[in-house]
């Protein structure tokens, strides 16, 4: 009893889940109402064809039984016409179905990527790439069970059921009543199978996500796997995942098989019962043979709407988990409504001032930046130093508006960044990040991304400005050298050089360099640093550096410890104090001396 109550409760919750899922796709359905309306109109044609065919079969049978061959032959053109109409309706139906569901899925797919591009990095940083990919490769297609022909079926099947029942009741009401006696049982079983399938399909979606996450990590971590000889272990893990997915898929097939068998047993049982009863009615001359044929022909049309409705319910139960997973992304608040695009800055070489005031921030409540205040005048170069995890890169994240401080404010050129559009804010900054990311394509393709309208001459000028033109020319195909996904095929230092040229090409008034030269050898680093000094002229520059010898020239050096400023001043001022900066310099100096002594 308790189990039944639980199932009943679950089915109620499921109805709410289906309703919520529909809310998500409603705007897309509305946009593509035409193919859905077309499918709906075809429903009436199909009902007409079903009844007309049954009627015609009855008439033709009676003509044959009564040896009225002329009448029989006169009905052949009508039979051919109905068949042709049925074929045409089938053709247009599948065309409309593809149009309806294809368009909705296409729009949903585009909307999903658009949304992902607009949501806060807080969400995308938290989500693993494999999980986000699964939304596009698996979840989107799960929605198909709720749109197109499946959606129209919800209206179509009850109408067919009612129309066929009315027609049959006209012939013999008792026979019609017997035919539908099993309806509640078929519907109830369909509902229960739907629940079981929903549970299973949720597990399938989760399992596919786990496998995609695992695969994405395995492919990106291949070098670690190889060097730590983890191949066997990783294969074992994937094998276990794959086995589990296979088990779930088998369970789904089994459940669907059970339900299909149940539908067939119910259908055949009803058919057989009706056949016997109708034969009795014919033998007692209560109905004609033709009426019996028409009646039996329609029995199938009475059963399949019932099993069909249950199958649709089951299909919905498969789609609901997919939509719930998509909703998890779609419910994330976008940072802006319009897709950001590049906004040119009128005077890129005139740096903009930056002001942090009492900024406090933590990821998920864990404090990282603590009442941070700093004033950077236009054109100044400020270096931020400090131990690993002190919060240096987080300051860059906050300045670019990826995360919002929990307290305090940040201003760029006197304007609060929270009030600036993301494209306006980010177009004013060029970043060389700690981890260099290059897209698959040529080096030129990667450089052209810096801003629209760049020419080959601009690219070469920027490379020369960074003392890196010769390096690019030395690559096998120069600027046309192809790099793989995530910059594969180039060394870490080579990738970093391309990233530096890309940042210069952006020609922004603020330069953000997070360990921008850390992967370069010391000679190249020196050359690039000298070149960057020229590029920095007039621009506001924030540099994060571990190698302190590279930041002596900074107008201000900020020492950060656990998100707090512990010291601030020029290199000369700080070195005179016996504070953390001097300690860091001494430590590095000591290391340099050790290296010199050893070499
Ligand atoms: N996206 C994130 N989500 C949660 N915590 C994060 C995230 N990014 C950084 N952190 C945490 O915030 C703290 C500061 O990180 P941050 O990258 O700002 O340090 P950092 O000073 O730049 O370090 P490093 O010199 O090693 O680059 C660290 O403890 C880190 O684990």
UniProtKB/TrEMBL annotation:
PANTHER family: ATP-BINDING CASSETTE SUB-FAMILY B MEMBER 10, MITOCHONDRIAL (PTHR43394:SF1), ATP-DEPENDENT PERMEASE MDL1, MITOCHONDRIAL (PTHR43394). One of its GO terms (molecular function) is ABC-type oligopeptide transporter activity. One of its GO terms (cellular component) is plasma membrane. It is found in: Cell membrane. Residues 354-587 form the ABC transporter domain. Pfam families: ABC_membrane (PF00664), ABC_tran (PF00005). The chain crosses the membrane at residues 39-58, 78-100, 147-167, 173-197, 258-282, 294-316. The lineage of its organism: Bacteria, Bacillati, Bacillota, Bacilli, Bacillales. It is a multi-pass membrane protein. It comes from Paenibacillus methanolicus. InterPro entries: AAA+_ATPase, ABC1_TM_dom, ABC1_TM_sf, ABC_transporter-like_ATP-bd, ABC_transporter-like_CS, P-loop_NTPase, Type_1_exporter. This is ATP-binding cassette subfamily B protein. Residues 37-318 form the ABC transmembrane type-1 domain. Keywords: ATP-binding, Membrane, Nucleotide-binding, Transmembrane, Transmembrane helix, Transport.
